[in-house]
Amino acid sequence: MNTALPSAGAAAERRPRAAHVKSVQRSPGGPRWTKGDRVQPLALLDVDDALLTAATVVAVTGDSIQTINRKVKAGRFPPPIAHGERDRRWVAWQVREHLREQARAQGVVREREAA
């Protein structure tokens, strides 16, 4: 009688894939979640006191996190605030104003008319 167990590869092929599998990186120590999962809805930019994650600021500005860090160090981007021991967040109104100032300096923003 053959009591061999099916291989782990065969069992993994039969299991349905979860919807979140695309955001999981395979690594020797097991699955690791990517920080890209922490992108927030862009509607948070309209909430003045919302705290934006680095992934959201990257998505909004189009700059890499390294470029944002260089701009913060040079004083050309609003500094983040500490959010826990290792996390940092940007205040939405500061990021929004920075983007508006950049666009205004390049002449691509029309001034709003008073209603």
UniProtKB/TrEMBL annotation:
Q: What is the name of the protein in this document?
A: AlpA family phage regulatory protein
Residue ranges for the region (Disordered) are 1-36
